[in-house]
Specification:
Elements (H helix, E strand, L loop, with lengths): L1 H23 L4 H14 L7 H8 L1 H12 L3 H6 L1 H25 L4 H11 L4 H10 L6 H23 L10 E2 L5 E2 L17 H21 L1 H11 L2 H21 L4 H11 L6 H25 L3 H6 L1 H25 L4 H10 L6 H11 L5 H31 L18 E4 L3 H12 L4 E5 L2 H9 L5 E2 L5 H6 L7 E4 L4 H14 L4 E6 L2 H10 L3 E4 L2 H13 L5 H25 L10 H27 L1
Parallel strand pairs: 3-4, 3-6, 4-5, 6-7, 7-8
Antiparallel strand pairs: 1-2
Helix pairs in contact: 1-2, 2-14, 3-14, 4-13, 4-14, 6-7, 6-9, 6-16, 7-18, 9-17, 11-12, 12-13, 12-14, 16-17, 16-19, 17-19, 18-19, 23-24, 25-26, 26-27
């Protein structure tokens, strides 16, 4: 019992010390976990259990992909198809080719060189996605591209596992008379899949049928099951069901010979539009965080210090060379696919390491006779060292990010899956108050803003909002411009506000448009563009402040309120008159007719308010 409790105590103690310290230093939690693992690996008597723990901790990756799937509807996944096939596919092919050439120069046989290329073409899904999430970079254009490549790599593991046995230099894998691959070692019997006895076309059909069955179950069975669980009023049953969905799908995919992480991701995508999505996410999140942390610790603890100390310069040099080679391929690909500046550097640096699936391929390749023991140990060490360097690559990105902070980072818009009677474009201080009032009164709103921080702030307080440029016609259509009753334009950019009002008026002549204006010139431009109601951002607050002044210099509250109302009515009338004299291509100060009418209206206002005050006194 004492030894059973000692191991988790050491792991938790190392994590509690290293992770907060790394976070306080701005290095991120991933580097903290990895550092804790390195410390554990250096302790005598520990580390032998690392490989067994790593298999268990890999469920953190499975759960992470399930949660990511919950955030992606099938429509969003379909929209990424060009990145999945083009960007992801080319990254794998070109990286394999580059590593193949480099390995051949080191004197390896072509089969071994190709197998090394397969192993090192993959990147670390766990470390990269965890770091992107911590830094809020998942929704950037570069972050979406990174995710597309990682997803393609996870899918590619399946054919890689089928291809590796064919690359055995020693001929330990053979082609049987029935066309199947003969397994070289008896200990691989547990890798047998559910449909292995079927011909190739039968395996394909059976696999597709099973996946279709999983999708159908997710669409049609989850709702009644969740209602049944809800009737029990037992909170732990929701957690049990969430774990059942993740682990069950992962197990089924394993039986099919597919990636368990891919199965969990598929389950998440199927449930992305479910009303139970947030419940599932909150139930899985704690398990995901703990298991991912454990996985990162095992990566750090798995360093073979004997191999490292025997050839330190070579091992570190190979890891750095791998990062440089993959980074060069990624940079050229990202540039070719339209990524620039910060997005390009994020894409390049985030994916330049090797990944955790490389451990699986190296182990499998060793069992199949593709790699001998010395080469396997070196490959495992290179993979681990490159993963350890990943947080440093993100620190390099942060440095480059500051250099490009003067340029605006493009972010991909959210998929808008709801519509309402009121569309609010822009949720700064002005738009937030409008949204709170309208929603609290029982009316549904659709909120759009291209500022990620504002969107995240609203979501943290329970309000639903969508990231995207409100001036884009396709986003307005998705938000329900065709059927909306009111459009509130409260974006900061005056030119963008005018563009939005003109477009909305052209598309919907009957739409009621309420717009925020920065000053009088903006009021006139919005009026000309077709806005119905125009609110100057400082006008009402300034008017109320003026009323407070009048109350404290001798007027009663009633008299001050009357003066405020008179000023308000006169100003609205004056704006309508002055709008006829305003010229968009001429400064108001140089418009003689405009200036003269302003002076006349100010005199009229003064006489009106004085007459109001005299009337109150005589009464």
């Amino acid at each position: 019992m004492h030894s059973l409790l000692l191991l988790p105590t050491i792991y938790l103690l190392a994590a509690v010390i290293a992770v907060p310290l790394a976070s306080r230093l701005g290095l991120g939690s991933v580097l903290g976990y990895l550092s804790a693992g390195v410390l554990i690996g250096l302790m005598p008597g520990l580390g032998d259990e690392t490989r067994d723990l790593q298999h268990f901790a890999e469920f953190g990756v499975v759960m992470m992909l399930f949660i990511i799937g919950l955030e992606l509807s099938p429509g969003a996944l379909w929209a990424m198809r060009h990145r999945l096939v083009g960007l992801g596919g080319l990254q794998i092919v070109l990286t394999i080719l580059a590593v193949f050439i480099a390995s051949s120069l080191f004197g390896f046989a072509w089969q071994t060189s190709l197998a090394i290329g397969l192993v090192l073409s993959l990147s670390s899904t766990a470390i990269v996605l965890q770091t992107l999430t911590e830094k809020g970079l998942v929704q950037t254009s570069g972050g979406r591209s990174v995710f597309a490549v990682l997803l393609t790599q996870d899918i590619a593991v399946i054919p890689f596992l089928a291809l590796v046995p064919l690359l055995a230099v020693a001929g330990l894998a053979a082609i049987s008379s029935d066309g199947s691959i003969a397994v070289a070692h008896e200990e691989l019997a547990h890798h047998a899949t559910l449909f292995e006895s079927l011909p190739a076309w039968g395996v394909t059909l059976a696999t597709l049928a099973t996946i279709a069955l999983i999708i159908a179950a997710g669409v049609f069975l989850t709702k009644p099951i969740f209602r049944y669980i809800h009737a029990t009023r037992l909170r732990e049953m929701f957690t049990a069901l969430a774990l059942l969905i993740v682990i069950g799908n992962a197990y089924i995919m394993t039986l099919l010979g597919l990636s368990p992480a891919l199965g969990a991701f598929l389950a998440g995508v199927v449930l992305a539009n479910s009303e139970f999505r947030h419940e599932l996410e909150s139930d899985i999140e704690p398990f995901k965080g703990l298991l991912l942390g454990l996985f990162f610790i095992t990566v750090g603890a798995s360093i073979n210090f004997d191999v490292l100390m025997a050839e330190p310069a070579l091992m570190i040099g190979l890891a750095c060379g791998l990062i440089f080679m993959k980074g060069l391929v990624l940079f050229l690909l990202g540039f070719g696919f339209g990524l620039r500046k910060r997005e390009l550097w994020l894409f390049t640096l985030a994916l330049a390491q090797a990944g955790e699936f490389g451990f699986v391929l190296v182990s499998f390749g060793g069992q199949q006779g593709v790699f001998d023991d010395p080469l396997s140990n070196r490959l495992l060490l290179v993979i681990t060292l490159s993963m350890l360097m990943t947080p440093m690559l993100f620190l390099a990105y942060d440095f480059l990010h500051k250099r490009f902070e003067g340029t605006k980072q493009t972010r991909e818009p959210d998929e808008i899956d709801t519509q309402g009677a009121v569309i609010i474009a822009g949720v700064g201080r002005f738009g937030q108050i409008v949204n709170r009032l309208v929603e609290s009164s029982g009316f549904k709103t659709v909120v759009l803003d291209n500022n990620l921080e504002r969107i995240q702030l609203m979501r943290s307080f329970g309000y639903r909002a969508f990231l995207g440029d409100p001036t884009r016609p396709e986003l307005l259509r998705a938000a329900g411009l065709r059927d909306a009753r009111v459009l509130v334009v409260s974006i900061d950019d005056t030119a963008a506000a005018l563009k939005l009002v003109r477009h909305a008026r052209k598309e919907r002549p009957d739409l009621h448009i309420i717009a925020r204006a920065r000053d009088r010139g903006h009021v006139f431009a919005l009026y000309e563009a077709g806005a119905n109601d125009i609110v100057r951002e400082m006008f009402d607050s300034s008017l109320r402040a003026g009323r407070y002044v009048l109350e404290n210099v001798g007027m009663t509250e009633y008299e001050a309120a009357e003066a405020e109302q008179a000023f308000y009515a006169h100003d609205r009338m004056a704006l309508k008159e002055l709008a006829q004299l305003w010229k968009p291509d001429q400064d108001m100060a140089s418009n003689a007719a405009y200036r003269a009418r302003v002076r006349e209206l100010e005199k009229e206002l003064e006489l009106s308010l004085q007459a109001l005050a005299e009337g109150k006194k005589s009464a």
